[in-house]
Amino acid sequence: SGSGTVSLSNNVLVVDVSYSGLSGNRNNSHFHAPGARGVNAGVAYSLAALDSATGNNTNAGTIRGTSGLADNAYGSKNIAAQLQDLRNGLWYLNIHSTTFGGGEIRGQVDPPVRFYRLISP
Known about the structure:
- The chain is mainly β.
- Helix content is 7%, strand content 43%.
- It has one helix at residues 79-87; strands spanning 2-9, 12-19, 26-32, 43-46, 61-68, 92-97, 105-110, 115-119.
- The longest helix has 9 residues, at 79-87.
C-alpha cells in the first residue's frame, strides 16, 4: 500500500510518498504520463533520486524530494503541455518491485485546485 502528496511550485514537483508491504524489494519509481486512470503510459520522470535513507532494495520506505519539470521530458511536450496533462489527471506514480517489474503500486495523481494527492484505482 502507499499514500502521499505531490505539490507543484514554479515548475518543480514536491513529492512526499510512503509505501509498505511490497511483495518484493522496491527497485524503481517513476511518474508516468499521459495516462488516464487504468491506462498505461510511458515514463515521464524518474524518481530514483528521491529515495529516502531506505532507498531501493526494501519493501517499505519513502520517496521524498523535488523534481524539476523540463521541456521535452515525454512525448516532446513542453512544460505547459505537461502541466495541462497533470491538471487533467493524466499522471500516475508507479512503484516497481523485484516481484512486479512493471509496477506493484500505482497511484493516479488526482488534481484538486492547487495540490495533488495520489489515489489508488
